[in-house]
Amino acid sequence: MPTIQNAERVRRAVPRGLSHTGPVLFSYGFRPFFLGAGLWAVGAMALWIAAITGHLDLAGAYGAHNWHAHEMLFGFAPAALAGFLLTAVPNWTGRLPVSGWPLAFLFGLWCAGRVALLATDIIGVSAAAAIDGLFLAALLAICTREIVAGRKWKDLKVIAGLQALTLANGFFHVAVMNGSGDHVAIRLAVAAYVVLVMIVGGRILPSFTRNWLAKSGRTNFPVPYNGFDTVAILTGVGALAAWTVAPEHPGTAGLGLAVAVIHCVRLHRWQGWATRPEKLLLILHVAYAFVPLGFLAIGLHALGLIEERSVLHLLSVGAIAGMMLAVMTRASLGHTGRPLLASRMTVAAYGALILCALLRPLGEVFPDVAPVIYAVSGLLWIAAFGVFSLEYGPILVRTRRTPL
């Protein structure tokens, strides 16, 4: 009979990328979806700028403003999320990842949604919404199946976030078909992403930081996950739920401000300042810093001190897109066997996105120069994801190696 050690060697010998023939792009989930997220982040923003400057009639019957909100939250962001989940879930469960033609089909569903929403005048809003909804529903089904089959019950909380995002997408489409953009659906989607950042960030930040500090000979390790982290996540969920349904309620103000302090403490426990020499790791801490900043903004908005759009952009650009760009760069390097070192181009992309996250909310504070602020922040967004696409595109398309 094989020994436990032999069984473990056999398990590790199973190829994690499955597809060793055919296009490299579809050999692992992070490849097509990280590349698609980067390219669409650039393309969607360029189309939006062309629309608001009067050079393009965008999305027809769906409405340009509705389309922009949708494509940031339910177009670009789900692609980045899919790339992460289709790579992380197999590592959590020990099961083989979606690869080859099934992965190509799933990516095709995502692409079909992008095309459909640009063609609403041709196929109709209802048909476009139905086509767009297929991708998130399929991703939810795949991730649920894998986590249940792998009996990783603690990871079902990630599925809850993905389910909330899927529902928010449907609510948003219904609102558009009824003649209005649904701000509740937008807040629900942003809240779902932030919950995922709180959960996954609490998993990877202290782990990556501890490993890096240990290799550097340091002993000031992050505090491991304990009851405080559970409290931080649960109170964060409560504050986000209150913001979603009652953004201007006094109770929401109190929750937002209190949870901002809790997550500042949580971030401090992870020793992020010690990672300054390694920008690939530091950016994870910087992106997470927008979580307490976002909760602070939720509290200030409930008190009537800032606009809701400032809250949305701090969370969506800083916490959500910032964490996505950080994970996309790190995973693209690590899963193709490259050193985990941020190049100058990568650091420039990080800087552009951080500036975008900090600059965009100022448009509501200084309305006289708002058009300039919007234009510059849009260009910074394009620069961040344009640099990612240029630098990491060849890695994702050509470099087949994936570590076991």
Task: Describe what this molecule looks like in 3D.
- The chain has 404 residues and is mainly alpha-helical.
- The chain is 75% helix and 0% strand.
- The protein has helices at residues 4-13, 30-52, 64-93, 101-118, 120-123, 125-149, 156-177, 183-215, 227-245, 250-268, 279-302, 308-334, 344-359, 362-365, 370-398.
Characterize the overall form.
globular
- Percent helix: over 70%
Mean pLDDT: 91
Task: Tell me the strand percentage band.
Answer: under 5%
Radius of gyration: 21 Å
- Give a count of the beta strands, DSSP E runs of length 2 or more: 0
Sheet bearing the most strands, described?
none
Helix tally equals: 15
Q: Kindly, what is the distance between the CA atoms of the first and last residues, rounded to a whole number of angstroms? A: 25 Å
Helix/strand/pairing class, anyone?
Answer: mainly alpha
| Poorly predicted spans | 1-17
The H-and-E topology, N to C, reads as: HHHHHHHHHHHHHHH
